[in-house]
């Protein structure tokens, strides 16, 4: 059968950077070596001067389907994701209705099978009352159970210690948590009752103490019940003491940072306002720098997006009425590559945190690495071309970006999912070869 041969790539993988050819056949990488021979029917892609990375595995997105499809859909947001070099994603349960049953998970899989351009999995959402559904989770099929610890509304809010202890004790798979203490947030808001509420007060209301009290509680619960815990989107220097430095393989409690908390700080509220209102809040520059340091010393294990689109009109209201969240998947990897220009992060460290470690933490089968026999989920980066970002060149359904007006130092040249080029730097494949992620947690 004809193969796809990528020639002359600079491969970044497993803490190495080296030049090589790569051959793909039947969705998988079949050969990595110099001077791979080419047959007459083979397709050849000369990538001289380009970087070849394993595709980003984003373990935290909100694609808004079902029920909130005026903000985004699995189809629209997965297109934006592959345009940003993301080849696999794990999607959150706060849609409408919330994904709190096995039946709801199956419905999402049906939608993704028909419309997604990137590989996919979905979290089951925890509620105070769905412990029986949680106990039925098939850990080879479900990426994890999402627990909103005191910072959500409706049936996904889990605050009572009895319900939380049951989840941490009985959950058969990875628990992922949003950690903000609701009582601290409510007290902070009450203390501001005489002040006008504007976006700049967001990190005052949702402050470091709200984060620390909740994340430390989650860590304590995981230690008490020997749970598998992954704490999402950390934002504060104070929280870094809760997590151990070291290889992810040796940990049962792991930590994540998101790209917007590595990019923005509280000085950006004056210009961007509600566009960067998100939970947990973007905080001080000292917190941003502490997150970068924690990535480099391996306290933070994974970098994700927490992509959470809302329409521009929904954001263009007074602060207290504006929803939290921002669209990020199209520009997440590009934003990280800008950190290599400043020397804050190395390219090999970025690859570790966006591809290798998500694959390890979630025990994803045969993805996250450029290895023979693995699925060919790959992204080509052009380090010699820039990317100018504007609202009108976004692929998000919401058609805006917090990076409007910025020019990134690199360009996404192509994205491959299961060996098929789904994005060529400007246009998309018309057919999807995306697959559900499989997890080997035995």
What can you tell me about this protein's structure?
With 442 residues, the protein is α/β, with parallel strands linked by helices. The chain folds into two domains: 4-52 and 375-423, Urease, subunit C, domain 1; 56-362, Metal-dependent hydrolases (TIM Barrel). It contains 13 helices and 19 strands. Strand 18 and strand 19 (420-423) form a beta hairpin.
Give the topology, please.
Blueprint: E1 4-13, E2 16-25, E3 28-33, E4 43-46, E5 51-54, E6 56-61, H1 74-83, E7 86-91, H2 102-115, E8 119-122, E9 124-125, H3 131-135, E10 145-149, H4 161-170, E11 175-179, H5 182-191, H6 202-205, H7 208-225, E12 229-231, E13 253-258, H8 259-263, H9 269-272, H10 285-296, E14 302-304, H11 312-315, H12 332-342, H13 347-362, E15 378-382, E16 387-388, E17 407-408, E18 411-417, E19 420-423
Parallel strand pairs: 1-4, 1-5, 6-7, 7-8, 9-10, 10-11, 11-12, 12-13, 13-14
Antiparallel strand pairs: 1-2, 2-3, 5-15, 15-18, 16-17, 18-19
Quick structural overview:
With 442 residues, the chain is an alpha/beta fold.
List descriptors.
442 residues, TIM Barrel, 28% helix, single chain, eight-stranded mixed beta sheet, 13 helices, Urease, subunit C, domain 1, 2 domains, alpha/beta, globular
By DSSP (H or I, 4+ residues per run), the number of helices equals: 13
* Outline type: globular
The CATH top-level class label of the largest domain: Alpha Beta
Report mean pLDDT, rounded to a whole number. 96
Q: Describe the sheet with the most strands.
A: 8 strands, mixed
Contiguous low-pLDDT stretches (5 residues minimum) are none
- Strand fraction equals 15-25%
